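Step 1: inspect the first sequence and its tokens.
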Amino acid sequence: MNGESYRAFASVYDLLMEDIPYGRYAEWVRHAAGDASGLKLLDIGCGTGVLTECFAREGFRVTGIDLSGDMLAVAKERFEAAGLDGAFFEQPMQEMEGHSGYDLAVIAIDSLNYVTDDEEVSAVFRNVYDALNPGGRLLFDVHSPYKMTELFLDGPFTADLEEVSYIWHTYPGEEPLSVESEISFFIRRPDGLYMRQEEFHLQRTFTPDTYLRLLIEAGFDVCSVTADWTGNPPAENSERIFFSAEK
């Protein structure tokens, strides 16, 4: 999904993401960091900054990066309203530059699945490696192959909320382990009428072995690969896979 397609999505993103376990993500990062106080954290694919705010409240010095300027505008407003300090940059993660001295980098909530070419995933890992201090940690999660080939294709999916509704159709993508999504949003306007917004999303995952290979090629030592918040290795029917790697 490019920055343009996020424009209307940004205005209702938080409503649609209310079921995301932000607290569990924050705990995952807190556990990896130990004492967060004063540590520099790079939140890659930060969106509207909900999770970035969680990190800031934990004591991290945060920087957020996202492809969408509209999402970042919401994130900046969030931080200003909360009186929190944070820096935000509009950059694709595979072209990320100008960042260094970080203790942690996080690519959460399957943001990496929007990078659909393995060479670009490799570029992301190299960029993150360059941004981290020695001993710095990269944490990210992705959809599993099972979720992409089975669960995502069990649509269409619908939601009917007070401010927004959607119809979400999914199709197998052209590349292996990819899914194309066509989503019709109906966003309520102040006058009570609804604005229709059509969007196209493309996500792709890779096998855990592919991510491991790309991490190692970028120079990382892999610390753990787990699934579904269990702390256990991925199984055939795991839905979400979590990686931790150290520079």
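Step 2: inspect the second sequence and its tokens, then contrast the two.
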Amino acid sequence: MNPDVVREQHSDDPQQLDLLRVCRIGRAQGLKGEVNVYSFTDEPEYRFAPGSVLYSRDGETEYIVERSRSVKARWILKLEGIDTRDDSEALNGIELFGEADDPDEMLEDDAWYPKDLIGLEVRLAEHNGLGLPDGQVVGTVVDVLDGFQSLLKVRLEHPVRDAATGEVTESSALVPFVDEIVPDIDLDEQYLTIDPPGGLIPGLAQGSES
């Protein structure tokens, strides 16, 4: 099973490290308190399920989802206690947060938040297919890119330079975030390992050290 990147966004408020930004409320929908929301989560069915609890930025105000529905690419929520159009219009622009998933459960599910991956040192895996030393430092994860397949953007420890001018020609690599290439992630030690095929990492030649 390939690891999953959970695309909810952590609050930038240091007092709310256990809350994740889930959505921003938009315009009112109809006359009975429903609101349109812009979702920041990859799990809207879970976060917007009836009975789910969402919070204000400071975590002091709770909003309980009474019902929800998706229409094309958007979600419409009815929150408990928000029963009129005036009520829903008053919420326009408010961001709602949810509790972060249990880290142990995420490990079991092989799921990761981008913030957990960014900053990790990238090392070559044990018995890697390139035949290079185990643990050789390749670089540092600087971004996680979305797409058909999640990609780790790695800033290279040893950028590739033009032999004639000495100018840097390649300073980063994109690594598919799949088990076959990223076999191990150690958040305690702040590193992950990769077993890249030849040619994926600029400057790493099979059977030679960069």
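Step 3: confirm your contrast with the notes below.
Residues 4-111 form a domain with the Elongation Factor Tu (Ef-tu); domain 3 fold (CATH 2.40.30.60). Residues 7-17 have pLDDT under 50 and may be disordered.
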